[in-house]
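ARCHIVE CARD
SHELF: 3
SLOT: left
DATA:
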Amino acid sequence: MELRSFSEHRNLIQEVLPNSIAEELGLEPGDEILTINGNKIKDIIDYKFHMYDENILLKILKKDGSLWEFDIEKEFQEDLGIDFTNPLIDKAKSCSNHCIFCFIDQLPQGMRQTLYFKDDDSRLSFLQGNFITLTNLKDEDIQRIIDYRIAPINISIHTTNPKLRQKILHNPRAGKILPYLKRFQEANIEVQGQIVLMPQINDGVELDHTLDDLIDLYPSMTSVAIVPIGLTKYRKRLAKLKTFDQITAKAVIDQVKKYQDQCLKQYGTKLIFLSDEFYITAKEDIPPEEHYEGYPQIENGVGMVRSFWEEFKEALPNLQLNTKKNIKVLLGTGHLAAPLMNRIGQYLNKAIPSVDFETVEIKNEFFGESITVSGLLTGRDVIAQLKDKPSDVIMLPKNMMRNYDPITLDDLKVEDLENALSRPIYFGPWNGQQFIDTIRQVLGDV
């Protein structure tokens, strides 16, 4: 085996999965993938594309400096079974836009540093479902997406009016969105679209024009989510924008329904979906489950309330608890989910009469009360608004905590919350079955 000096590289293996091809080959953390079938691996997309072949020639730089080569026969698309120290095997591309609605620009100073990074990376769109604007991509980058069949790709569209999109994103490159979408259509690349809707900016007639363009892109355009703008109280020196109220939210629902009906008749799918916030703001019922056609954009808040409610109702009969404990459980939640959680609390009180479930809506004093989603609740608001409410246990929405190394947006750990509130805290996932499982855990522990 040839030896060469070892230096810092991007393609370093962090973990070798058990019973994988990589384990069988003797690969170890710290080894580096150099080439697959003679192709240099510059990022995760290169790795995924070249690794899919049934026969690959793998060149590895071992951490001791030796070079190893493997001629591998495997199933098509079968992974080697490795994780990299950097999931992208490259630096993430930052955003080159200055969107007038950007949430990161509305953050106060002093929060954890990672919150201020604006990503706009097509590879994260493919790997993690992030939405991107395409403004930092060159024509060859678009062609690479097509050649590598990277799909689905999630794109923040906002408008197909070139001049208006340039204005919204504050980027002269933003006007090329429709030609790029048409290239994806011609290449049969699946796209999921997103529109952040702003009153008197890209709604009304502009929204009509945008939706007219997008429905012509079906079936490449597989779904479009429309979400309302979110404004915090930290907007000094930023554009003056408005949020939706009951009347304007109702107008959007009526406007979009015409397109949903048209698409359903023409394509057999509604194609265009509104986030739950529009229905709640308009004080209208959340549509039934069949409206969402399998929830293609649930991560965008489209059908999340309906999905949770249906899962909860299905899981509730399986709770099967005969507890005689007389305890009180506070169900903390944000404004948007408060009506649903009130209803869930009522069902739980009937199912377990000895336990008192009380829903408490936590106002977002930190960002401003116009921010209504539970995922943006902070630890300090939770503490301030629950400390004087008696209970034995507190349940909070899991999405207010970071997934890895759980911590709030304002850098409080679980133990910080428990110490401040002098009670055990549990975190309920936004999934009906898992929520019931957490209830079972709470009543078993207390």
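SLOT: right
DATA:
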Amino acid sequence: MMTKPRLLLCCDMDRTVIPNGAAPEHPEARQRFKQFCQNQEVTLVYVTGRHKTLVQEAIEEFDVPEADFVISDVGTKIYQVSNTKWQELARWEQEIKQAWGGYNHAQIMAFLSKTDGLVLQEASKQNTCKLSFYADQHINQKHLLDQIQQILNQHDIAASLIWSMDEIAQTGLLDVLPANATKLHALEFLQQQLGFQLSEVVFAGDSGNDLPVLASPVPSVLVANASNAVKQEAELLATRQGNSDALYIAEPDSLAMNGNYCAGILAGVWHFQPGFRALLQNNNTSNDT
């Protein structure tokens, strides 16, 4: 008897599941994504920089499916979601906060407070293991990150510095996280906790803070609406790390849709998961090969 395939589908939210970028959304994409995620063999995970409240608001506003798990705050929080009830996985925070060497959020904020070019983000965008700043989009990114890394090294703080862009607000975003608290580490932790093999995982993303996953061995799709700069960087990093076969960039004609947002996610599933192609063919008369 053949075992049914199963899938841990891990998706960024903004400009990936959520069509809130400049590129057009295919009119069928979101509904087809929702129908696909209703399959009991699919475990849906949102992997996002948003905090819990903003995730909940986005699910309602954009009518996207409820996830089974949510990795939020750029990987610093993991929640299990059941019937709209959210339960934080406390073990994850216990694991990651050790990297900060006993320092807390307020202490690290004080260390970095005199760094030129940084503006602290709102309190709602901070948490016990995430320190977030705004920065001018034209700032010398390398110089800024080198400055911050030097300060952290002085205090033996092991941190990940995640730089991305808010294209709508036209501002730089910087997250200072425990070194093992990236989206990639959180995804790997959850994968192991749930007992999925790497071959049963697909990640979808679009932006700079998705690069650690996009360049990793995790089968990943970069949706077509991602910027050319992110596409080039993802391809370069994946090749350097020997993982080019694990990265797929959705094409404009993928699955007879446009490859943007949910259409790109489904194209990635089609590419990496042949066992799910029959489901993807439902309500669709033409498919990519």
